[in-house]
Amino acid sequence: MRIEDALRLAQEAELDLVEVAAAARPPVCKLMDYGKFKYESAQKARESRRNQQLTVIKEQKLRPKIDTHDYETKKRNVVRFLEGGNKVKVTIMFRGREQSRPELGFRLLQRLADDVAELGTVEAAPKQDGRNMTMVLAPNKKAAKPRAAAPAREREA
Predict the structure, then answer these.
(1) Residues 121 and 84 in one domain
(2) From start to end of 46-155, where are the E strands?
(3) What is the extent of the structural domain holding 1?
(4) Strand, coil or helix: what is 53?
(5) What is the total count of domains within the chain?
(6) Is 149 domain-assigned?
(7) Are 69 and 103 in contact (CB under 8 A)?
(8) Is the distance from CB of 93 to CB of 60 less than 8 angstroms?
């Protein structure tokens, strides 16, 4: 349809000629109320933003020669972060001669990954970058747990 004819139809119906698909050949237009079109598109954009999930990366720093109690405390923090649905970046900081023994850090990261395997999976394998070795853990997708129905209480009369 010619543009002039479409504009005349829009004026007769007291509506606007709105271009819906500009990239199409020929361009696709509709007769509609432009204010309503803008409002509906804003509502769709707002709804899509609401459904987006914000990913937060928490960081936990360790040392290669960490004591068992300190390790348990750090592991408890990692578990708390994963249960909260956050990704965890575990960093092992090497100092001095520790840098010549990266296998200590690798073993520690593997141990941590095995300890929290039921809550999270390794998203980025341990890798050395300078004085630090990093690994990223992502939370497992939460399986829907069927909730047991609460027993109904009987009234005593």
Answers:
(1) yes
(2) 57-62, 87-93, 120-129, 132-139
(3) 1-37
(4) coil
(5) 2
(6) no
(7) no
(8) no
